[in-house]
Structures are given as structure tokens and as C-alpha cells.
Specification:
Layout lengths: L2 H14 L3 H12 L4 H6 L7 H40 L15 E2 L1 H15 L3 E2 L5 E3 H4 L31 E3 L5 H10 L3 E10 L10 E11 L4 H15 L7 E8 L2 E14 L2 E4 L4 E11 L1 H6 L8 E8 H9 L12 H7 L1 E2 L13
Parallel strand pairs: 2-5
Antiparallel strand pairs: 1-12, 3-4, 5-6, 6-11, 7-8, 8-9, 8-10, 10-11
Helix pairs in contact: 1-4, 2-4, 5-10
């Protein structure tokens, strides 16, 4: 067979191939195991040495030439496909960009950061504890007797126990007060810590949810008094609500873990739906407090004859509602992005006392 005729046949077929599939058919017909050029190469063994040498060189040249044409055509088809794709996916880079959605910090997280900054300035460290607590840490160590209503199933989430299980019951902690016991046991005295975190109670309405957030604080030393407690809370309220003047009112109350105990109200006014702290003739309860009960100190391994201190606790969600004008506590946990965009905080605006808590 005339090799030049064979060359023209396949070079033309390569040029006319309009797709990679068609090009592959040409390759198989020419260079495949059963292709024409492969069949010609198989006849070399029957030739005499001189003829084999000349014919082999010519056939190798033809094979290399067709292979090069196949590769070039395949690259051309790929370039053409890319050009078509670029035309269909064309983007006008001169058009103004659309802003990306930006995440925001949840008000609860923001207020936790604000609390931490304020109390850190007063020398308080942050302590944490488990959310699933033993009955002893959550109640007994805090001087809450077995007949107390908080220890009933209508108020507390008790963890499931198999029939016959004699181990002490566990609960979803109803307050962060157990952290007081753990901190005193682990760190000893003197001690100043706050314990922010999630707590759980069976309650649900406009101002209560089954899960919410609290912060507790304790200060233990040899000569701490109610005067120290009053100063600490006044300084906190002044810094948190970002006002020059606050007025607190302490009302006698009862908590099992403090003695004496006091509920704390703050003076405020509400004019035209705008809440103003530190002025007016109205009072609003914001937290509970008192001096640490000797039985609580004893449960934590602290001698109440040598050490004394104060404790306080407040709802983080509640004070966030007060400060930022949020009317319904349930909205905190409904995952509504519109609500979060309205009440959320920029991720990089970290609160500090010098630059302002809620910039």
C-alpha cells in the first residue's frame, strides 16, 4: 500500500473530526491494535532485512506523524470547548459587586463578653462547670432541702434512670451556683469568680424559657461584707448600662444558699417606650444576692469561722433585654436571621471598658 495515500487518508480524517469521540474512532482505525498502520507493522517480520529496514523507518515516521496530528487536534477541540464554556459563563467584572451576607454576634454572647470585661476589671476570674449536675452539687451542697419546690419534677429536668439504679440522681442544672462549690473545692480561698452559662428550668412564657443563661458571682475572703457586695453591684450596673449614676435598692429576701439574702432593684423610668436606667420613680428587680451561707462554705470544705463572702446571680438574657430593648425572651432562641441582623453585633466589635461596651 502506498504510505503517502494512507497518510493523506488519516490526516484528512483527523482534520475533519468534530469531537473527541470522532477523533478516537480515527485513532483506533489507524493506530489501534487492529488499525491499518498496526496491521502494516505486523508484515515487517516477513520482509528481508534490507526491505524491512526501509519499510520500518517509513512506517514509524507515518505513525508518529498521525499520532502528532491526533494530539494537536485533541488540544484544538479542548480549546474550542473551553472558549464555548467561557462565552456561556461570561461575567462582566465592571459591574458593582454584591455585598456578602455578614454574620453577627448574638446578644447573649455579646452580653457575656461585656460581663467578663467588667468583672475582670474588678479582679474576677471566669469559672465553668458541667451542665448535667449531680443532685448533690445542684441542691444539697447549696443548702436546698429535700422538700424544697425546686427539687420537684414540675420545676427541674431530672435525667432518666433505669429501674433499680441506686446512684444519686442527676439533673440539668437549674442555676450556675454549683460552679461556686466546684471553684471553691478546686481553687480554695481567697476567691473571686463569676460563672456564666446555660441553665434549665420547666418554664415558658414571654419572660421565661426552659433554657436560659445566668451569671453567678462569688467573692470569698476574711473580711468581706455586704458593703463590698453593694459596691460591686453598683459598679457593675454603672459600667454595664453605661450610665454615670445608678441607684440600687436592696430588699430582704430568702435564698437557701445566702444569709442574709437580698433582692436588688434598680431605679428606672419609661417614657415613650424608652427605658432609662438611674432616673425616674420606678423600680425593677434585676438580681438576687446575699452573704454566703455557712453551710455552703462547709460543703465546699471552707471553714466559715475564718472565711466569709458574698454571692449574687442574675439572668443574662434578662439584662440583655433591659439594655438593648428586646421585648420578648423567646425570640432569643427562635433562630430568626432577621431578628439577629437587627439585634446582633459586629463580630470584630469586642467590648472593652476603655472603648465602650456596645460600640
Amino acid at each position: 500500500m502506498d504510505l503517502s495515500e494512507l497518510r493523506g487518508k488519516y490526516i484528512g480524517a483527523v482534520a475533519q473530526a468534530g469531537s473527541e469521540a470522532a477523533l478516537e474512532e480515527v485513532r483506533l482505525a489507524a493506530l489501534g491494535k487492529k488499525g491499518e498502520i498496526s496491521a502494516l507493522m505486523a508484515t515487517l517480520g516477513k520482509m528481508d532485512p534490507e526491505a524491512r529496514k526501509a519499510a520500518g523507518a517509513a512506517m514509524n515516521t507515518l505513525r508518529d506523524e498521525i499520532d502528532a496530528a491526533l494530539r494537536a487536534r485533541k488540544a484544538g477541540l479542548a480549546d474550542a470547548a473551553l472558549n464555548d464554556r467561557l462565552k456561556s459563563e461570561w461575567l462582566d467584572v465592571t459591574m458593582p459587586g454584591r455585598p456578602r451576607p455578614r454574620g453577627t454576634i448574638h446578644p447573649v454572647s455579646q452580653v457575656m463578653e461585656e460581663l467578663t470585661a467588667i468583672f475582670a476589671d474588678m479582679g474576677f476570674a471566669v469559672a465553668e462547670g458541667p451542665q448535667v449536675e449531680s443532685d448533690w452539687y445542684n441542691f444539697d451542697a447549696l443548702n436546698i432541702p429535700p422538700e424544697h419546690p425546686a427539687r420537684q419534677e414540675h420545676d427541674t429536668f431530672f435525667m432518666h434512670r433505669a429501674p433499680g439504679d441506686t446512684r444519686p440522681p442527676h439533673v440539668l442544672r437549674t442555676h450556675t451556683s454549683p460552679v461556686q462549690i466546684r471553684a471553691l473545692t478546686d481553687l480554695g480561698t481567697p476567691l473571686r469568680v463569676i460563672a456564666p452559662g446555660r441553665v434549665y428550668r420547666m418554664d415558658m412564657d414571654q419572660t421565661h424559657t426552659p433554657m436560659f443563661h445566668q451569671v453567678e458571682g462569688i467573692a470569698i475572703d476574711r473580711d468581706i461584707s455586704m458593703a463590698n457586695l453593694k459596691w460591686t453591684l453598683e459598679e457593675f450596673c454603672r459600667a454595664f448600662f453605661e450610665v454615670d449614676r445608678v441607684e440600687l435598692r436592696f430588699r430582704a429576701s430568702h435564698f437557701p444558699f445566702t444569709e442574709p439574702s437580698a433582692e436588688v432593684d434598680i431605679r428606672y423610668s419609661n417614657v415613650g417606650g424608652q427605658l432609662r436606667i438611674g432616673e425616674g420613680d420606678k423600680w425593677m428587680e434585676i438580681l438576687g444576692s446575699g452573704m454566703m451561707h455557712p453551710k455552703v462554705l462547709t460543703a465546699a470544705g471552707v471553714d466559715p469561722n475564718e472565711w466569709q463572702g458574698f454571692a449574687f446571680g442574675m439572668g443574662i438574657d434578662r439584662i440583655a433585654m433591659l439594655k438593648y430593648g428586646i421585648p420578648d425572651l423567646r425570640a432569643f432562641f427562635e433562630s430568626d436571621l432577621r431578628w439577629l441582623r437587627h439585634y446582633g453585633f459586629a463580630a470584630l466589635d469586642m467590648p472593652d471598658l476603655a472603648g465602650g461596651l456596645s460600640r
